[in-house]
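Reply to dn_fold:

You asked what the input looked like. This is it:
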Amino acid sequence: MVRRGQKKHLKRLPAPRHWPIKRKHGKFTTRPIPGPHPKENCLTLAIVLREILGYAENMREVKAILSSGQVKVDGRIRKDVRYPVGLMDVIEIEDAGEKYRLLPKLRGGFRLVKIDDAEAGIKLCRIEKKMMVSGGKLQMTLHDGRNIILPEGHKASDYTTLDTVKITIPDQEIAEIISLDTGVHALVTQGRNVGIEGRIVEIEKRYGTHASTVTLQDAEGNRLQTALDYVFVVGKDAPVVSLGSDGGTHE
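and this is what came back:
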């Protein structure tokens, strides 16, 4: 039996439900290539440029924009229409002079929040796991697939799984560590409370998948509980990146 490798096409009907595409407008849509985000938690550049931002009306125009090198993701030029972009990624359209950050939307999916030049140079990444590599150095794997070696002078004990690191892009230099603790600001990235932002008031750790929970309080004083794995820390006293709102951003 001949193996053909990964499929290059994806039908619109079984595509992730949060994708902002017309299900019956054509048969196929763009399948994300293997990259920093899984298919269920990303959008392709084609969807961002055509369906969300409206810079293109068809795939030919999308390819023309990308081939000209106008689009950057996290500070690097990307030319593949199927390149996956996900949580906290910074998208820059050079000719338009516009920069956006991809954030979760209420009830699921993603929204683009417009940001300024200063904020476009930083990115928040959640630590997913840590491991020691050759030379006795600590390597951290972040939520977007990148691996960072802890620089000299940094204590390994200061970095814990599910903490957030603020890095510069595209240099990947660590600018700040924000620990997961009570009192910090966090964003819910999955589950039925996805897209809600608030201050952590309680953390309950238990054994078992999704058994550990976090209680957050939003700006209106409402409290909600979600799984610890669904929480993404975004700042200590206040969010260090613009979170915008569903009403004032692209959807």
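Residues 128 and 142 are 5 Å apart (CA to CA).
Hope that clears it up.
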